[in-house]
Amino acid sequence: MTKVLEFYKCDDCRTVVMVTHSGEGPVMSPKGKPLRLLEEKTEEAGLTEKHVPVIEKTANGIRVKVGSVTHPMEKEHYIQWISVKKDRNLYIHALRPGEAPEAEFPVNDTNVKAMIYCNKHDIWTNKK
Ligand SMILES: [Fe+2]
Fold this sequence. Notes:
- The chain is an all-beta fold.
- The protein starts with 6 loop residues before the first strand and ends with a strand.
- The strands form 3 sheets. Strands 7-6-9-10 form a 4-stranded antiparallel β-sheet, with no helix packed on it.
- It has no helices and 10 strands.
């Protein structure tokens, strides 16, 4: 059974899909292979770079930064997107290599769920 806002990844082609409507599943690749559910991680054990989103208030909303230590933003290893879920709204900001691993959202609440996707270390969140 899939759930809304779950993410699945094809480890062959590296495609990531988001569930927008729950269903029986499993989520399959075009070649018939089940995609891997990306578990939302919150612990930094064993990694030197940090991934857990950090939220701070700004004049226009909130800024989400990736980790307490700046994450690499190189082509082979970078944060591809940052998202914030607030009530019935989902904000997603796409990033490119070379950009800062952060994004600002028009949300007036720092007590929200933020998620980031690292192309090497998958999905991380500040709360489950
Ligand atoms: Fe990473």
